Amino acid sequence: MENTYPDGDNYVCADCGHEWPMVQAAHADDDAGAVIKDANGTVLSDGDSVVLIKDLKVKGSSITLKQGAKVKSIRLVGGDHEVDCKMDAGSFMLKACFLKKV
Q1: Which residues constitute the domain of residue 20?
Q2: Domain identity same for 17 and 62
């Protein structure tokens, strides 16, 4: 719009009051280049098979994922829980620090 102005580190629209940063923030896709490692420091990649190294309680459920459970064909995603997988109990997002590559 024509009525935008800089204010500190943001641009502000005088018409609607919307603010946005002057410098574009990094996109979530930039995390795809990050290296994700398992509990032993081995680099994980899409399609790997992994094993749980400890029992994990599923939040909001009575399900417990047991130590030693094998997960086939993982998919790596960005964020706090880096591994997306399907198990017998359902689909889960897991942290790589609780997994060991097989």
Answers
A1: 1-27
A2: no
